Amino acid sequence: MTAHTSPSSRSRRRRRRRGPTHASGRRGGRGRVGAGLVALAVLGAAGFAVAEWAPPMKNATGRTDTEAGPAADPGRTPTRTPSRTSPPSPTPTPTPTSKARSTQQAKPATTPTTSAIPATGPGTFVTAAGHSAKVGSGRTLRYRVEVETGLALSASDVAEQVERVLAHPRGWTAKGTSAFERVPGGSTDFVVRVATPGTVDEICRRWGLDTKGEYNCNVDDNVMVNLERWELATPVYAKDVPSYRALIINHEVGHFLGHGHVTCPGPGKPAPAMMQQIKGMHGCVPNVWPYDTEGSLITGPSVP
What we know:
The protein has about 300 residues and is an alpha/beta fold. Helices cover about 20% and strands about 15% of the residues. The chain folds into 2 domains: about 40 residues, no CATH class; about 180 residues, Collagenase (Catalytic Domain) (3-Layer(aba) Sandwich), CATH 3.40.390. It is built from 5 helices and 10 strands. Strand 6, helix 2 and strand 7 form a beta-alpha-beta unit.
């Protein structure tokens, strides 16, 4: 879809021990000595009871999405971005070219807030290393996963999430016509890029799509993911950010595969993955997968 669009402290217990209280002193006479010994025994027992049963002390530590089309590759840097420090709005209606298609994403409900997300970045990217096994049958589409330089996201973590989405049995492999394989370089069919709103806008604009700093897009061989949608999702998916991320990937890759926008097929039915859910559910219930459990495409009436 176009713009849509998952951390705590431990308390430690410390047991406070009180040592037994000792009394000492010397008095004359055996009777007094004996009484002293009895007192010591009583006090020692009391002290032991305090040390044994004292209760432990606790130390407390106590928006919306859009769609877009293909874009040119701004390049990437050889260095990796820092590791992640914390673990897709209405879509514009552009006039797409043969390869320009808009997309929709959601806004994840995670620790980051809108104000904490960089407005723009350098436009260079770090590519996830390694590769995935081929998933699905039919024509194999090779893809890369990239994260804009300087973001507090791990390219490898993003790649793992994208791999899981594309390998899902209700994803785009369900029909048996497409297969996917992630690679770190060389010839690729498309690239999934997570970037700041400004960089997404700049790349999508090259193909005439206005993502307004809010949306995702698919342009040319680029699946552009707006960082704000990736981190904050949309209100409908605010409590299930991973699902919204799946919706972003399925919606935008769906555009790359040639699927256009559709709308809700009827009240209470699952929303199609190619529906611009950022614009409203129109009576449908949330759903992020292109196919149902029986292998049938979830779709609805076509929209411009």
